[in-house]
Amino acid sequence: MNRSVRFLHFLSLIFLSALAVVSVLPSFRLVAGEDPHAEKRKAMVERDLKGRGIKDTKVLDVMGRIPRHLFVPGPQREKAYADHPLPIGEGQTISQPYVVALMSEALRLKPSDRVLEIGTGSGYQAAVLAEIVREVYSIEIIKSLAETAGKRLKEMGYRNVEVRFGDGYAGWEEKAPFDAIMITAAANHIPPALITQLKEGGRLILPLGSTAFHQTLTVVRKEKGELKVEQMDPVAFVPMTGGAEKGTGEKPRQKGK
Ligand code: SAH
């Protein structure tokens, strides 16, 4: 091959590569801009959140953006925007969208807040919190779930969430005090360490109840050292394990004993 033929060869190669890039680009953009779950997510916000009384615009906005389907196992993805909990492995569940919204709204979060979550699960609730507040600390007692959720949140670009494997019953002393605490597993009493780690004026929310199937969403406010308790909706959460199963606090004494 002489020099000019080789040069022509080179030119045509450049031309063909450029053509390939140009023809691929628009279709890539189309794929990237098209979210097959966008419609379902919009319907979830309208029907199951706004339609059921959620008013916090920040919560509505955030839940309208976060790709909830990426927090559930593949076979569950089609059902990710339906208003019920879904299995996430290890016998645990991701809470239904309405309950995630209700609990997030009840904490009356501010952008400057530092929040502790007990029960990372899939990491979805942590992501919702992370979009609203400054810092989120989340503890998960099942190692595989803690690892998966931590990795997922990192890959999705959340820099203000820290996930730790451990028993949330003891809270996260090194990071305390918190402006708000959310417990996403059911307990029959409020873990005392969490009350200690809550800031004065702070709020804590948990599914409080003595049975495995029914609890009452309960908000506790710490005011001048005292606890103000407000009961909300009936809910059904998976139980809080670890220390929560042992430290059942004071049992009411029966008369005559
Ligand atoms: N917030 C989660 C769902 C919570 S399911 C989400 O958005 O997907 C409840 C989770 O609490 C389960 O993953 C369970 O393993 C965890 N859990 C139960 N007891 C716990 C404890 N003592 N400390 C930390 N996590 C606990």
Description:
With about 260 residues, this protein is α/β, with parallel strands linked by helices. The protein has a domain at about 85-255: 3-Layer(aba) Sandwich (Rossmann fold), CATH 3.40.50. Helix content is about 35%, strand content about 25%. It contains 8 helices and 9 strands. The chain has a 7-stranded mixed beta sheet. Strands 1-2 form a two-stranded antiparallel sheet. The longest helix is centred in the N-terminal third of the chain and has 31 residues, at about 5-35. The N and C termini lie far apart (about 105 Å). The model is unreliable at about 20-30 and about 250-255 (pLDDT under 50). Bound molecules: S-adenosyl-L-homocysteine. The site of S-adenosyl-L-homocysteine has 25 residues, from strand 2, helix 5 and strand 4.
Question: What share of the residues does DSSP label as strand, in percent?
Answer: 15-25%
Figure out the total of helices. Answer: 8
Straight-line distance between termini: 106 Å
CATH architecture of the domain at 85-254: 3-Layer(aba) Sandwich
CATH topology of the domain at 85-254: Rossmann fold
**Which small compounds were modeled alongside the protein?**
S-adenosyl-L-homocysteine
Uncertain regions: pLDDT < 50 for 5+ in a row? 21-32, 249-257
